[in-house]
Design goal:
Shape: globular
Number of helices: 13
Helix content: 40-55%
Radius of gyration: 21 Å
Number of domains: 2
Order of helices and strands: EHEHHEEHHEEHHEHHEHHEHEH
Low-confidence stretches: none
Largest sheet: 4 strands, parallel
């Protein structure tokens, strides 16, 4: 992909960039924020998800969209109300044959633009496209976007390197913290060790306060220690996933599966959480339930209609069962 740093900078007037606090913001948000700040832009984030965010997004969306996509549109709407100059909506295809993203991430700019056009609202979208199978690399995508803001090649490269380093450092820090927690737990006597539950879900599910926050809070209130599959070292998890399958095409699901395998011996149970109707999760979660043995699994699916109703009760029951099992169950009753 050739980059013309002498072309007209059509985004030079953009000063306030809105980044929706949804979807892959929970995976690449540090990089995105750092990148636009390096360009000299003010980054605007909207408030975390709540019922109102979902209601707005549901109104803008079609029924077939998943809960996470509806929340995303609600976040875009909130940013439009904050008078940002443009909203950042990337198109992410993938990094390789078995490192792809769900089709919703590939079509997200069109989804957002069309949803607001149908609603009679105007939203200016800035985007980039990453599709390494077709030569559209991450670096070239960022450099091309920086050129549209009027940056030189040298300035663009510096902005990209800063963004990539910030995200890499953040991911490494989270992985180290979780590894330290697991190590400390392993040193405790068995009778003093709390129940350790792994939440395996896309980060925009597990870390969104409206969706996954309910599960995390319920687990902690029951005295459980919570681990997150997406906070395991990502390259290591991706490599480990090939022990499970060589044909799964989605990078995030691969990382979640690899994390489950890596932490299998350190946890008491697994919570698989998904936003209805996620296609990749419907396939991968079923495979996990069928093929990963030795640990109790609670599967939770959250949709736009029921939301998180009943989730707390199911989590409490799951923890009660695990606690009883840890004490020896009926054999030691």
């Amino acid at each position: 992909m050739s980059l013309d740093f002498g072309r007209r900078a059509d985004l030079a007037d953009v000063r306030r960039v809105g980044i929706p606090r949804a979807l892959l913001y929970y995976r690449y948000g540090i990089a995105w924020r750092t990148f636009f700040e390096q360009l000299g832009c003010e980054v605007v984030l909207d408030a975390p998800s709540d019922r109102g965010t979902l209601e707005v997004g549901d109104h803008l969306s079609v029924d077939e969209c998943c809960l996470a996509s509806k929340l995303f549109l609600g976040h875009v709407a909130a940013l439009v109300e904050q008078n940002v100059d443009a909203v950042f909506v990337p198109s992410l295809m993938g990094y390789g044959r078995f490192d792809t993203f769900c089709t919703k991430f590939q079509a997200l700019p069109d989804l957002a633009a069309n949803a607001f056009a149908v609603a009679g609202q105007s939203v200016r979208i800035i985007s980039l496209r990453i599709d390494e199978l077709r030569g559209e690399t991450e670096e070239s995508a960022y450099l091309g976007l920086a050129a549209r803001f009027g940056l030189s090649h040298k300035e663009a490269k510096r902005a990209y390197k800063a963004a990539a380093a910030a995200q890499r450092d953040y991911d490494a820090s989270m992985a180290r913290e979780q590894e330290k927690l697991v190590k400390n737990l392993s040193k405790l006597p068995a009778q003093e060790r709390p129940l350790t539950i792994l939440i395996a879900a896309h980060p925009y599910v597990s870390h969104d306060p409206f969706v996954g926050g309910v599960v995390e809070d319920a687990l902690r209130e029951q005295g459980a220690c919570v681990l997150f599959a997406d906070e395991t070292d990502k390259p290591r998890s991706l490599k480990r996933s090939y022990e499970f399958s060589h044909s799964i095409p989605w990078i995030v699901n691969r990382e979640l599966i690899g994390s489950i395998l890596a932490l299998h011996d350190h946890i008491d149970g697994i919570v698989l959480m998904s936003a209805y109707p996620c296609g990749p999760d419907s396939m991968c979660d079923d495979a996990i339930e069928r093929c990963i043995k030795g640990k109790p699994i609670l599967t939770l699916t959250v949709d736009a209609q029921a939301g998180t109703a009943g989730v707390e009760t199911r989590v409490e029951s799951f923890v009660d069962i695990l606690s009883y099992q840890k004490k020896g169950g009926y054999l030691n009753a």
